[in-house]
């Protein structure tokens, strides 16, 4: 059953995932994670773009804490299953989407919210957006968030955000490689729509080829990446005949 706190909307080749609990800053809970995973892992071949959006002033201020009470004395296995596994599954599902995933970020993107922005292929941010990984303020190692960002954001950027807990402005996040582009807050929706329409103007097979190369090529040797590029280009072009 759909959760009332995330809305999934299909409009032809576009799938929108709307974080929709603005009263608490769009904090992610397990039901929301499951709904997003279900949506992005069941896409058909006609889908070209997935967008991660939010209602209210903030993109996502973190996660609803799944931590058991202190007197529960949970085992490490239980903590792995209840605390660690859900967000990791969400990040992995978004990374594995076969088409470009675009996040549209306004307001605060904290913890999981920062990870969601970073894990997307393109992150478009309003100039008033703020990014932070604050977990170490509670003496919690944010390795789950870090796992979403490593390989997509420079290691020194991740280390500095985690260890300093500093809040990055949108301009600083752009300079640090966390977001793709910064636009005035008043024009964020229009800019996001323009980018979306640009992407939708391409064929699904071309977009999937680009996404596959972005996902796999960084782990390949230079020779392997060149061969893979030739294979993807030939496959995409052959679909036109």
Automatic annotation (TrEMBL):
Question: What's the EC number here?
Answer: 4.2.1.17
* Main EC class the enzyme belongs to: lyase
Keyword Lyase found: yes
Q: Does the keyword section mention Hydrolase?
A: no
Q: Which UniProt keywords apply?
A: Lyase
CDD domains, sorted: crotonase-like (cd06558)
Tell me, what is one Gene Ontology molecular-function annotation carried by this entry? enoyl-CoA hydratase activity
Similarity comment text for this entry: Belongs to the enoyl-CoA hydratase/isomerase family.
Q: Which PANTHER family match?
A: ENOYL-COA HYDRATASE (PTHR42964), POLYKETIDE BIOSYNTHESIS ENOYL-COA HYDRATASE PKSH-RELATED (PTHR42964:SF1)
Q: What is this protein called?
A: Enoyl-CoA hydratase/isomerase
Organism name: Paraburkholderia xenovorans (strain LB400)
Q: What is the lineage of its organism?
A: Bacteria, Pseudomonadati, Pseudomonadota, Betaproteobacteria, Burkholderiales
């Amino acid at each position: 059953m759909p959760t009332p706190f995330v809305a999934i909307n299909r409009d032809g080749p576009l799938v929108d995932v709307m974080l929709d609990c603005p009263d608490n800053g769009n904090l992610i809970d397990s039901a929301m994670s499951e709904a997003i995973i279900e949506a992005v892992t069941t896409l058909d071949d006609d889908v070209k773009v997935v967008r991660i959006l939010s209602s209210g002033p903030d993109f996502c201020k973190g996660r609803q804490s799944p931590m058991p009470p202190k007197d529960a004395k949970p085992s490490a296995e239980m903590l792995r299953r209840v605390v660690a596994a859900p967000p990791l599954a969400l990040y992995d599902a978004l990374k594995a989407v076969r088409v470009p995933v675009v996040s549209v970020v306004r307001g605060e993107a904290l913890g999981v919210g920062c990870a969601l922005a970073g894990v997307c292929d393109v992150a478009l941010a309003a100039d008033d957006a703020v990014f932070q990984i604050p977990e170490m303020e509670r003496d919690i190692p944010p390795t789950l968030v870090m796992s979403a960002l490593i390989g997509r954001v420079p290691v020194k950027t991740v280390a500095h955000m985690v260890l300093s807990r500093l809040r990055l402005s949108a301009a600083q996040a752009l300079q640090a490689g966390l977001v793709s582009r910064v636009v005035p807050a008043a024009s964020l929706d229009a800019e996001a729509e323009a980018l979306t329409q640009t992407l939708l103007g391409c064929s699904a097979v071309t977009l999937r080829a680009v996404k596959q190369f972005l996902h796999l090529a960084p782990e390949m040797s230079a020779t392997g990446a060149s061969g893979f590029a030739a294979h993807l280009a030939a496959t995409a072009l052959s679909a036109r005949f």
